[in-house]
Specification:
about 300 residues; Arc Repressor Mutant, subunit A; 11 strands; D-Maltodextrin-Binding Protein, domain 2; alpha/beta; seven-stranded mixed β-sheet; 3 domains; two-stranded antiparallel ribbon
């Protein structure tokens, strides 16, 4: 039995006689009659009572009509569900992110993505360690928004920079630099610094130390902090100064002031990361949304 047999049967049952159903289906009446007979032979019982004067739907035909409608609806729903999955309009997406992505990029792209694809189930997972990053990105349904993700194997993962931003200096409000329009890194020599911990494969921390090194500043490290909010909170508490990405300026805490660096300085990258072999439709359309919000310059 094929779906077309059900469509033919429904047309005949609703139109009666066969001639009117044939017109509805744009089929020759003999061809339609043959299809219905084939259906009845396959079922093993008649659906219609036929005489030369009229055709009537039997009790079995009435029952079969309800079920035929249900089966066709299910088939249509299956096609629609598969189409939505194919186009990325439904399904799941796991977004892993580093803390700094929450300051601008993640809220912006997530708002747009869910506006366009409200039926996708989005799961968020903050990646605070290299191990956590590896676990999250192991899923073909995942994408990461990471700061300087050089730790990842480029044969397994695609890495695409979406935001390249300068560093700024975060100082306590009471610091003399807070009154300046911009700050030369050299003037921070001897200052207590709050820095991220250095670890293999994390270029973010390495870039901060390279900026200091290029300006002949040997940092007097008073505290290490991995999370963005922790760094800024310690600065606000007067423990020291820090170099943070410009987007950290969105973290408005009492007691901290952000100032641009005077002169040329290195930048830090925020990137999208996903498994090269992923074929997930939800991932594909998410990448498109991010690229539209952050086009390559």
């Amino acid at each position: 039995m094929e779906l077309r047999h059900l469509k033919y049967f429904i047309a005949v049952a609703e139109e009666l006689p066969f001639a009117r159903a044939a017109g509805r289906l744009h089929l020759a009446q003999p061809s339609l009659s043959k299809q219905i007979k084939q259906l009845e032979q396959e079922l093993g019982f008649p659906l219609f009572y036929r005489t030369k004067q009229r055709v009537e739907l039997l009790d079995a035909g009435h029952v079969f009509l309800d079920e035929a409608h249900r089966i066709l609806r299910q088939a249509e729903n299956a096609v629609e569900s598969a189409r939505r999955a194919h186009t990325g309009q439904s399904g799941r997406l796991l977004i892993g992110f580093s803390a700094s992505a929450t300051l601008e990029v993640l809220p912006k792209v997530l708002r747009k993505y869910l506006e366009l694809y409200p039926n996708v189930t989005v799961e968020l997972s903050e990646m605070t360690t290299i191990r956590a990053t590896e676990l999250v990105l192991d899923s073909p349904l995942s994408v990461g928004l990471l700061r300087s993700p050089s730790l990842l194997n480029k044969e397994l993962f695609s890495i695409e920079t979406i935001l390249r931003e300068p560093f700024v200096v975060a100082v306590p409000d009471s610091h003399p630099a807070a009154k300046q329009d911009s700050v030369r890194i050299k003037t921070l020599a001897g200052e207590p610094f709050i820095v991220p911990p250095r670890q293999p494969g994390w270029d973010y921390a390495d870039t901060i130390f390279q900026i200091l090194r290029e300006n002949a500043v040997e940092p007097r490290i008073v505290q290490e902090a991995r999370q963005a909010l922790a760094v800024v909170s310690l600065v606000a508490g007067g423990l020291g100064v820090a170099l943070v990405p410009a987007s950290f300026s969105n973290v408005r805490l009492p007691g901290v002031t952000y100032r641009p660096i005077k002169g040329r300085s290195l930048t830090t990258d925020l990137a999208m990361v996903w498994k090269r072999n992923s074929r997930a439709s939800t991932l594909r359309v998410f990448l498109d949304v991010v690229r539209a919000e952050y086009p390559k310059r």
